[in-house]
Amino acid sequence: MSPTQLSQPADSQTKRFRRYFLYSWLTNPDAHRNYLRRVYADSLARARQTQPNLFRTGEGHFLLCGVGSVNTAETFCRFALEIAPAARITLFDVRQEVLEKSRARLRACRIGGTNQITLQMGDALRLPFAAESFDWIETDNFLQFFRKEELPQLAAGWHEILKPGGWFTTRQIFLGSGWGDVFGRLLWQSYSRIISAPCHEHCPAEVARQLERASFRVANRWQPARSFKQIHSLAAFRP
After folding, report:
1. pLDDT tens, 48-80?
2. Closest of 165, 172, 168, 148 to residue 65, by C-alpha
3. Domain locations in the chain?
4. CATH code, 2-237
C-alpha cells in the first residue's frame, strides 16, 4: 500500500468532516460489514445485467470515493479483490486520519499486495486524478455531504476520471412524505447531528438527471432488499 500525501483540502470541505470520527465509534462493525457486502454484490449484479463480463478478467482500477470508516475500507477492499484479484484500488477521503487508520487495518489483515492499494487524501469537488483513470467508482451514503447545487460538479468530476465503459455505483437515504417517512427523517437527521455529519437529502430522480447531464448513462435505479424502503441505489456507466 502506498499512501499519497496531498495539501489540505479547502476549509469548507474539511469542516464537513471535522467531528465525523464519531461515525466509526457508533457504527456496529458486523452489521455495517454485512450491509456493505450485500449492497456491493447487489450493485455488481445490476451492472452485469448491462455488461455480463464486467471485471471477469480479474483486473481493473477501482475508486472508493469517501471511505468514512476503516470497516468500509476493509470491506470494500476484500470485496474488490474477490471479484478482481489483480485489481488496483484507491481509497479516497478528505480526512488523513481515516486513511491512516485504514492503512493500519489493511496491513494488519494482510489485504492487498505491494502497491495494490493506494490511499489518497483530497476534496471530492476537486478530484486529484487523471482523466479516464478508473473502471469503477463506488460511494455509499456519500451524497448527503453535498448540497444540491454541488451535484453537477460531483457528477462531472466522476465522469472525467472514469474510463469509457466504466461504472459508477451509489446509494443514499431518501424518504418520502408519509408519516413513517417523517419519523424516519427525524431519526436520520438526529443521528447525523450526533456524528456531526451533514444530511442533505437528494431525490433519486434528480441524482440520475445530474449524472445524465454529465454524459453518464443510468442503467438501473432500485431499492436494496432489507433497507426498509429508505435507501435508493443507482448504477450508471460512461458510454
Report:
1. 999 999 999 999 999 999 998 899 999 999 999
2. 168
3. 2-237
4. 3.40.50.150
